[in-house]
Amino acid sequence: MPTKQRRYPIKAKEAKQVLTEAQANVKLDLDALFGAKVNVEVVESEVGTIYLIGGKPLLFKAGDTVLPTLLFTEFTAKAPKIVVDMGAVPYVCKGADVMAPGIVRIEGEFSKGDLVLVVDVKFGKALALGESLMDTEAAKATKKGPVVKTLHYVSDKIWDYTKTLIE
Questions:
Q1: Looking at per-residue confidence, does 27 or 4 come out higher?
Q2: Does the N-terminal or the C-terminal CB of the chain have fewer CB atoms within 10 Å?
Q3: d(CA 167, CA 56)
Q4: Which domains does the chain have, with CATH numbers?
Q5: What is the pLDDT of residues 19-60, one digit of tens each?
Q6: Which DSSP letter does residue 96 get?
Q7: Which helix (H) or strand (E) holds 126?
Q8: Other CB atoms within 10 Å distance of the CB of residue 53
């Protein structure tokens, strides 16, 4: 568990900038979702920068990119999904990229470079957030090789740390 953390609110202008950057990745209208006056807090720790919206850890910064956490239910409900068989689950939960043979089906449409959600076939639980390495049609047609580059997954540092921030 990280020992050092700094938590502080950010000004409306800076919050708007963070949400605008995130909106491009999540492909959701965040202004409509959160309203014009949204309360955004930043938590800086050894794990990274996490953005709390309404007290919930919904976004985090990976490098220069703002991405949704797996706890962002509005995103996970609408995101295109890659459904994997139960044999792939332990590997995905350790950060492995999603390989074509482990994919059972694809739900929704996406382009190369879009964010996709990786879920298990049995429970439909979100396992990982990834970047698609191909578009929907190519992903459905391929039989081998990686299809999704994993960016954030259950049991990674961000996941573990965000669980401690839930109020």
A1: 27
A2: C
A3: 7
A4: 5-71 (3.10.450.120), 75-157 (2.30.130.10)
A5: 999 998 898 888 888 887 889 999 999 999 999 998 999 999
A6: P
A7: strand 126-132
A8: 20
Query: 86-92 contacts: CB < 8 A, separation 24 or more?
Result: 86/120, 86/121, 86/122, 89/120, 89/127, 92/118, 92/127, 92/128, 92/150, 92/153
* CB neighbourhood size of 21 (10 A): 16
Which whole-number Å values give the CA distances from 34 to 18, 50, 132, in the listed order? 13, 17, 27
Query: Could you tell me how many residues make up the chain?
Result: 167
16 is written with which tokens?
A: 């708007």
Buried b (16+ CB within 10 A) or exposed e, 91-101: bbbeebbbbbe
Residue range 123-141, pLDDT digits in tens: 999 999 999 999 999 999 9
d(CA 158, CA 50): 8
